[in-house]
Amino acid sequence: MLCARRNEGLYEHLIGVGELSKKIISETKVLCKIAKSFSENFATLAYYSGVFHDIGKMLYSYQKPLDKGCSEKDLSFPGHEILSAFITSRILEYLDFFSEIEKASIVKAVLYHHQGLREVKVATYMLIDRIKRCRGKEPLVYYDDALTLLKQLAGKMNLDINVDEFLDKIESDLVSGDIRLLLNNELVKYNKVLCSLMLNDMCKYISFRRILTGVILISDTYVASIVDKASSIYAQDIYTFVKQFK
User: Fold this and answer.
1) Domains in the chain, start-ordered, CATH in brackets?
2) Which of 113, 142, 145, 188 stands the most exposed, by the fewest C-beta atoms within 10 Å?
3) 120 and 85 in contact (C-beta within 8 Å)?
4) Cα 45 from chain centroid?
5) Are the CB atoms for 95 and 107 separated by under 8 Å?
6) Is pLDDT of 38 > 90?
7) Rounded mean pLDDT, 176-198
8) Tens digits of per-residue pLDDT, 97-130?
């Protein structure tokens, strides 16, 4: 089984964060009003962003330390947000019910959900370095477990994807290609979409994306903290906030 943290299954974490994110953004009046001005699909966008936010944690070199126990520093899986955004972007190619700007919102929310912890450029470097160091020494992913995870998500979210081919393509590209160029080409296309927006639409997008990123952070913290039985002041604040949605 793939893990999101030491004692938390990755599939359960992803679904938990997706469902809570959808609930928060749908039931908080001020957030709902702003989100609806951007897209009628806002609740679905929150759900997809939450479900995919940590999918990059399937990487073998992230999961391996969990077999032996790991430090608190390792628990953040440095750089996973970049791989998560990359995989999310590839999945969204199969979905025709989102507009390009909606897809950009999902990918950017996933990409920036740890921006308070580390800059995207730093996270990208950490991911590239990790994959390069492991090339030829270990597999990219625990293949069977990664396949199971993707099939679970595809079934839960009714995604029409050939999961075997999808995972094989991801693995092949990251193992044999220029990782920096690969990541850049996949993610920069959304910048082109955003550059085509008029100022008013850009402001709506920025407002929504910031809300989406914040909601994912809250949901992510809550779901993980419940498992860890965290008692920090920050965790207690999150518990208090989320109680209204239970």
Assistant:
1) 3-245 (1.10.3210)
2) 188
3) no
4) 12
5) no
6) yes
7) 90
8) 999 999 999 999 999 998 766 788 888 999 999 8
